[in-house]
Amino acid sequence: MNHEIRAPQVRLIDENGEMLGIMTSEEALRIARNRGLDLLEVAANSNPPTCKIIDYGKYKYEQKKKQAQARKNQVIIVTKEIQLRPRTDVHDIEFKTKHARRFLLDGDKVKISVQFLGREMAHQEIGLETLNKVLDSLKDLCMVETPPKMEGKQLFALIAPDPAKIRAFKKAQEAAAAAAGSGSNPSSSQKGHSSSDS
Hints:
By secondary structure, the chain is an alpha/beta fold. The protein has helices at about 25-35, 55-75, 90-105, 125-140, 165-195, and strands at about 10-15, 20-25, 40-45, 50-55, 80-85, 110-115, 140-150, 155-160.
């Protein structure tokens, strides 16, 4: 930038994007200074290098804004976890499965783990059965990224939201809500008929 440009000649573009031609870097810098702006090398590998007259402060600000927008547009995937035990009762499993459904609908991955303590390690099939029940009840929303596997004293599976299944699920919910809403309308229209009959 400015005095740091070492090339003897440069191809100059002004602040409006207009080509000013090839000239010495000193001449290009003098033109930029006369306009109260900076000279920035934008294509160092071209022959001669291409420089542009810009407001460097404004340029840096716009770059920062673009980076912030790019970060804002990034999709951040969070992994939530629900923990079970081999002998977790049915009500608790239903409650935790409801949470897992909500996480999946929010776009989060879910790690479902079954923790074994002491003698429970001898009956891992009970934990696997529990885990498979949960996976089965969530299959309408998810895809299994990591099938059930043991890691130390823990059996776990990792599931992720399946966009196609979630769209179908939401569409079915909307259809059910619309049907429920239209189900209440016929009674009101019947009232209208009975008042007109009288």
